[in-house]
Design brief:
The protein is an alpha/beta fold. 40% of the residues lie in helices and 13% in strands. The chain is globular and about 70 Å long. The structure holds pyridoxal-5'-phosphate. The site of pyridoxal-5'-phosphate (PLP) has 15 residues, from helix 4 and helix 5.
Amino acid sequence: MSITTEIKVPYTNFPQLIAQVRPELHEAFDAVITSGRYILGPHLAQFEKEVSEFIGVGHALGFSNGTAALHVALQQMKIGAGDEVITAPNSFLASASSVALAGAEPRFADVGDDMNMDPAALEAAITPRTRAIIPVHLTGRPARMPEIMAIARKHNLLVLEDCAQAIGARRDGRMVGTWGEASAFSLHPLKNLFTFGDSGLLVTNDPELHRRLWMARSHGMSTRDVCDFWSDNNRMDELHAAFLLVHLKKLKQWTEERRSLALRYNDALRGLVKVPDEGAGEYHVYQTYMIRTDRRDQLQDFLRGKGIEALTHYRIPIHMQPAARSLGYKPDDFPAAKKLSETILSLPLYPGLTEEKQEYVQSSIRDFFRA
Ligand SMILES: *Cc1c(COP(=O)(O)O)cnc(C)c1O
């Protein structure tokens, strides 16, 4: 006999969220399918215009997914064989695989208490072969960009921000995605701005880089007849752009809702577990609401028994992945990232999560620590 627990608080609730914009999504769908323009059409152009204004950058390009955006950016920044690119070891693996896909070698710098790249560790990881840095704004919390940019300038390195989890996040009022030479975003269903499938975004203030990225996204073609260089097909579909235009209008409201839920969790759980308190000047967008406790696995099992879905992002740091074996790292090379992988737990947090459900998560966590 199998015992199944009814899910009382799921990790996400798309039907509830979509209910807020269902008529607009249906209209968008109709507009695209009757237009006859499914690739590189007016919805994509409009989305690129609106999202570049939202972020505050000169140029935005819709991509097929965030990983492709990262790897095409590296290629067009002329990073490849023999080059090293430094990123964070506790990220989603695409922060590093994109470097390998561009033909360069991913290297890592350990993270600080904010779970983001530690500038001192970054500087220590620079070698004569280092060409670029990929800082990650993990969980939606802005990385320490002013210090990272100062190190990049001092050592003449390029910066590609991995903003996959952080659209709308700010440090000292400045949006993530506006510091680096280029910045990549993911619009995957689990990201704060999302569509119903895979999509990504690449932004830059550099018109010359934008021109090359624009060609690289679509076969390296400069006109419909001329191919300037070999490249892959990594375009965002017109349908996704139309859905994203609808969701972009809700992003501010959805982000504020995420922030209120996070602050409520913080107040309820502080003292029981380590909560993600914001540092000075930080505007965190909580793509993930991540707590830390030495009893992570027991707590996760306990919550599962209560019908609460809590997840781990990520259980194996990138430097410990089988795919990274040839890089020659040992598990203890990045003690902060390793410790995080053993103690982090992501709680359900999504726009529309009711106070009642959140209180149930909070009281269940209190029960666990009381027992
Ligand atoms: C989601 C994510 C990516 C990859 O984006 P996809 O759209 O899934 O390819 C890259 N980096 C980070 C930090 C992510 O969270």
